[in-house]
Amino acid sequence: MKLTSTSEHCLTRGGRLSPAARRLSRLRVLRVSNAFKRPVVQPPVVTPEEKTLQSVVETGIRGSIAMAAAYTLHLNLFAHMHFEASHILTGIQAATPCLAMEAALLLISSSLPATSKTKPAAAAAGVSVAAVADAVESVYLHNMRYSLIGAAGGMRRVLLEAGAQLSDDLLARGVLLGCSSAWLASRLYEAGVCEQPLLPGATLPAAGSTCGLGAEWTAAAIICCMIATRYNFHSKSKASNLQQQRQTAAAEAATKQQLLRYEPKAVQDAAAAAAAAAAAAAAGDGNGINLASAEEENEELVARLVHGWLGARFVVGQASMFAAFIATDNLLASCAAGLAMTLVANACCERYLHHST
Q1: For the chain, which residues make up each domain, given as ranges?
Q2: Integer Cα distance of 97 and 341 in angstroms
Q3: 3-state secondary structure at position 330
Q4: Per-residue tens of pLDDT for the chain, all 357 residues
């Protein structure tokens, strides 16, 4: 008995394609066509309980790393923690620039159109209100994603935010700034600039001169510059990714147009009619082509605005907390500055969500 493959069996029915063969050929064309479709990846839904648990775990990890590093490097972090009302007030005053930025962003969002119905007309004018509105929305969505909004409320959120901020201060100001400033002071001492070295964990009066303060301010400035460079790199990377996505989409459209000739005649006629109708609608509208190009330009502008604002706010916030710590030599002062900025940012985000809905 002669064995035949499935394809041969489907093709040998009176010299014509059997229904199974036609379905197989159609399936192959669909597989080729679907291979060029970009998959839509939906972000995972995070429940409020998961956000709360994530905040607690991250706080514990940061605090554990800070304490382990302090123990290894012989740093006394608790020597830089003492409660004084004047230091807390100094920290809140140091957070004023970042608080002003949050107020300015909320003022900009309140002056924008409440709905997105006016965005197409604004986008046709080029760099316009549409890009600013999308950028503001993206900034607030970023804040909502990385905050405890909706996960906890009242005093519970304040306690969680305070714990997260304290662990961040222990790691950033207590360990990172302390070690880097001590290393810089030692290098300045070796160069003959300082009278005596600034040992790790030493308080400001123990520095013996202004060399310790200079090393701390220099280390803080270097850290802030590194943060700004990181956000600038992400902004350029996002713009290049958008350009690459447009080029990929154009290549996919050209490939689909070439694969269209393998489709049945009815499908080709339907695609040609749809393309002609779209071209006629764009020509009759007059602003269709300009609107499409404006939307592409605004997409890159939105990415630059979002990364620029987030980077500027983060750098200003870190600079404010570093200034509060260096001015008072108290980690609670920088913690108060960071907590004030976080709570005001969350309040502005909730205000924006209430206004937009």
Answers
A1: 46-356
A2: 10
A3: coil
A4: 444 444 444 444 444 545 444 444 444 443 433 433 444 444 555 677 888 888 899 999 999 999 999 999 888 888 889 899 999 999 999 999 999 999 999 998 888 765 444 444 444 444 567 788 888 888 998 888 888 887 777 888 899 999 999 999 999 999 999 888 888 888 877 777 766 555 444 444 444 456 777 888 989 999 999 988 888 887 777 777 767 777 777 777 777 777 777 777 777 677 777 766 766 665 555 444 454 555 666 777 888 888 889 989 999 999 999 999 999 989 999 999 999 999 999 999 988 888 776
Q: How far apart are CA 170 and CA 325, in angstroms?
A: 11
How many residues make up the chain in this entry?
357
- Cβ within 8 Å of residue 156, ≥6 positions away: none
Cβ–Cβ under 8 Å, residues 52 and 148? yes
- The SS3 call for residue 13 is strand
Judge if pTM exceeds 0.90.
Answer: no
What would the two tokens of residue 19 be?
């229904």
Strand partners, 13: 16
Structure-token pair, residue 272? 């040609």
